Structures are given as C-alpha cells and as structure tokens.
Amino acid sequence: MRHDHLIDTRQLSREDIEAVLDRAAEFADDPSSFGDRHPSALLGLMFYEPSTRTKMSFETAMKRLGGDVVDMGPVESSSVKKGESLADTARVIEGYADALVLRHPSQGSSKLVSEFVDVPLLNAGDGAGHHPTQTLLDLYTIRENAGLDDLTIGIMGDLKYGRTVHSLAHALTNFDASQHFVSPESLQLPRSVRYDLHEEGAQVREHTDLDAVLPSLDVLYVTRIQRERFPDENEYREIAGEYQIDRETLASASDDLTIMHPLPRVDEIAPEVDDTEQAKYFEQAHNGVPVRMALLDQLLSNDE
Ligand code: NCD
Fold first, then answer.
1. Could you give the domains of the chain?
2. What is the pLDDT of residues 258-294, one digit of tens each?
3. Ligand 1, atom nearest to 263 Cα
4. Which of 95, 129, 290, 295 could be disulfide-bonded to 24 (CB atoms 3.0-4.6 Å)?
5. pTM of the model
6. Is the CB of 157 under 6 A from ligand 1?
C-alpha cells in the first residue's frame, strides 16, 4: 500500500498525527488565506453512502486550498447502476483527479480500492470498519479542549458498528489515554478490535453504565446507534433510546468535561445540552475543514 493512502488509523504514528494537527492549527487561524496552495488540484469524491459533514468539509477544504472537486454524485445516477464494479469506477475517476475520497458500506472497501489506484485514496468510512479522517478532527478537538496527554475518555453508544469509534480507539493508543467504553452488551466492541487494542497496549475498560465513570472523564465521546448496519430492525428498536444524555445525566460530570459526537445525532444528546460550556460537537464538526486542509495539503505536496 502506498504510504499516502489513508485507510486505517493504525497506519499513523504519534508524529504523523501531530504533524497534521499542527498544520491544521495554522489553517484554522485564517482558512481563507491559502487559496494559492493548490490552485489546480482536483479531489474526486466517491460517496456510496449518505454524508453531509465529511463530504462538504472535504469539498470546502479542497476549495480553500485553491482546488476543486469532481463528484461521482449519487449512486443512482452513476454507472454503478449499470453494474460497474467499485474497482473499475475508482480506476476511471483517478484519471480525473489528484486524490480520491471514498465512502462505501462494505468494510474493507477502501483497502481493496487502494490496491487498484495510484493517486492517494482517503477512506471516508468503510461500513463498520474505519473512518480515519474523522479521527484526525476528533483528535484535533480533544487536543484543543482537553489535551492529549494523560487523558481519560469515555466512548459511548454503538461500539460494535461505529467506525469512528474503532478508528479513534486505535489512534489513542499513540497517546497516554485511558479509554472507557460504555454500551449495551449487544453493542460492545467487536472482539477483533478489542484484541487489536490489547495488542497495541491500550488501557481499556468496558462498562454498561455511564454513571460510575462519568465523574472521572475529561472527554465523553457519544455516538449514534448505527441503525443502517443492524441486520434486524427489531434488534435496533430494542436498544434505541437507551443511552441518552441530558443535563440531569451530566450532574456528576466535571465542569471541564468535553462532550463530543461525530454527528449526526438522533436522540443520544438532548438539545438542552447544546448550550452548556461542555458541548463541543458543533465545533468538532467545523474542525473538519482545517484538518482536511492539512491532510490534503500534505498529500498533494508529496506529489510535487
Ligand atoms: C459518522 C460516520 O459516517 O461514520 N458520521 C460522520 O462522518 N461524521 C458517524 C455516524 O454516521 O454516526
């Protein structure tokens, strides 16, 4: 695999992560003043699943750097409908763009496509697998609000299907982080992820209840139950609404707690929490632009 494909956060060392976050901080100061960085660069967007933040922040980032995007558009109006394979589509679009962003419902899809294309490929979510660029903006947000050293983080919700969780948990093994996973039993971390985290030396504890750990947390990372990944809708209904936070739940939390969510939220965080000092999820979503600018700038400069 080319070093500049980004498929999985396990590819990233602490130095790699810090380089992107440091550069992102420079872009964040005044994102509109970097239009001469990559004036003719084109980013190919291949989204086989819904996306608002990831797609729009990649697009904003590329345009802020002076470039533009070419978008495959909705699957229904592309040649995918005619039966074209993912690999063929990617090989065609790499001829139109300097880098590709792929989101696809199948776990492993980005890894597979990375073996067919020469331009850098960024995994923007492969099923329940990974979502590394989300992790970089998550780490940026954590670093800005809580710091990445001596961190105690609670990660709550759908740990089984949540790709943002898997990517974040692996990346945090580069830092001194103690990770508390909170979920119903049926949505605990997949065994393979738990095993890999253990091998990576992660400090991991698993809980079914938030109360016991909440007071000790610096960051609470809440996730949506990934309804679209449940083989059985009834199974989803049994769990939906079980893990919600509101102002009452937060009574025992530190005033300095940083509450994050990759968004979209459904009902995991009551809107009344939005006005607290602790709520950082909209800021987190906005951090997607400078972080993706930093990543694209790095990849496109490698080719110069
Ligand atoms: C996440 C995803 O697509 O995995 N969204 C995002 O990119 N911010 C989280 C989710 O859909 O729940």
1. 9-131+287-303 (3.40.50.1370), 132-285 (3.40.50.1370)
2. 999 999 999 999 999 999 999 999 999 999 999 999 9
3. 8
4. 290
5. 0.96
6. no
